[in-house]
Amino acid sequence: MYKKISRKKNNFNSILVTGGGGYIGSHTTISLLRNGYNVTAIDNFSNCKKNVITKIRKISNDNFYFYKCDVNNYKKLVSIIKQKKIQAIIHFAALKSIEDSNLNPRLYFKNNVNGSINLIKATKKCKIKKFIFSSSATVYHQSNTAPFRENYKLGAANPYGETKLLVEDYLKNFCKYNKSFAAICLRYFNPIGADVSGLLGEEVSSKSKNLIPNIYKAIVNKKGIQPVRVPPLPKKIMLECIYPDWLNMERTLEAVLSGDKSMMLFGVLEAKETRSYEHGLETLEALAGIPEVLLADVGGLMDKLGEPGAEAIDLEGERLVGAIVVGVGLPQICLEQNLIRNYYDERDSAGFAYAYTFPGMNRVLQAAGRVIRSSDDRGLVLLIDRRFGQERYRGLFPAHWEQPEITRRPEEIGRAVAAFWSSTPKAPPG
Predict the structure, then answer these.
(1) Is the dihedral of CA 95, 96, 102, 103 positive or negative?
(2) Tens digit of pLDDT for each residue in 82-141?
(3) Residue 289 and residue 295: Cα distance in Å, rounded?
(4) Which domains does the chain have, with CATH numbers?
(5) pLDDT digits (tens, 9 = 90+) for 359-398
(6) 8 A C-beta contact, residue 302 and residue 287
(7) Are 115 and 166 in contact (CB under 8 A)?
């Protein structure tokens, strides 16, 4: 579920977003709309998909204007600016592939430099005083070392970076001789992420060389990771590595819950750490005397043991004697949780606790609670995350946990676990 944007009745500025169908441009458009601005977007669809505009309309309840327009079309630019009474421009429209710019430098200078100058001239004609330019980290010299600072040495190593640097210089001089005109240049690296609605991520054309989308394509076998020049990842990697691990997790959980020794034996044999069927049987018998410890990852198996849907699962006695909880279980940032956060922030400034901390710790405590299900049960819970040492999280521990033991190194964890199992169990209270 997501909340559609409704235009606020106010006197906020009217903004023109060029390249409004691109990744950064589309998300900027959504952000502006959410903050009450009147937005007009343009794009020539040379590096984006048309369905992006459809998604923006769906999220914004059709509360914005869009025109198919190239920044080199001066007359149409001026017409749109005058018609929509534009007061400020955010300029994202550009060709943006470093590799492609090396092959077609003239095309990049024509589109990125001439198109930008064309747009800046239109601002002068239409008396626009505010201008934001989407530059790039490629304007920095390769001799610089991370983390980058704004005042680092400039010097582009490719035509794409040179086009951005030239537009920056043009804007600097334009501001110098037009005192009422103000401009900002944004130099970013690899922006990633999706809209809180879940409807809009990064919709790029097949020409895109953006790093993050290409990593994604590599994972799903659409295309190799071209920027770092590695061979395409074949589909068999998913079938032979990722899916089997997941299926094994599911199968192991089912075996633990059901006590099915045949499934456990199958898992032992499949691990390829046994020499024969007989050796597998011996291994299983050896394992039978060791209490099972279930690793509950908050993003995986935790969902099976820590969510309300798993309340019917009961593992008494020695079927489950330990839980290792990795992370504090905070929900993913989304519109719904942020609505909760904003509500409680207005009431008592505890929005983050109600929206994220409390639900996360509830999952942690539910998973931990699976260990002790009767007065005769005995077990331990490992909480692996530095945040568990903070007072705001420790304050949510149950009173009967008394004083948890804190360890900071793997060897300390090993010694603490061994000491626990070698110690004499405490008599139950009462």
Answers:
(1) negative
(2) 999 999 999 999 998 888 888 888 899 989 999 999 999 999 999 999 999 999 998 998
(3) 18
(4) 14-202 (3.40.50.720), 205-233 (no CATH), 234-290 (no CATH), 291-423 (3.40.50.300)
(5) 888 888 887 777 776 777 778 888 877 788 888 888 888 8
(6) no
(7) no
Catalytic site includes residue 160: yes
d(CA 357, CA 367): 16
The total number of residues written for the chain in this structure? 430
Q: Is the dihedral of CA 296, 300, 306, 310 positive or negative?
A: negative
Query: Could you say which of 160, 277, 343, 393 is catalytic?
Result: 160
Contact 354, 340 (CB under 8 A): yes
Task: Give the sign of the dihedral formed by CA 395, CA 400, CA 406, CA 411.
Answer: negative
Q: What global pTM score does this model have? A: 0.51
Order of strands across the sheet that contains 294-297 = 294-297, 322-326, 380-384
d(CA 254, CA 103): 56
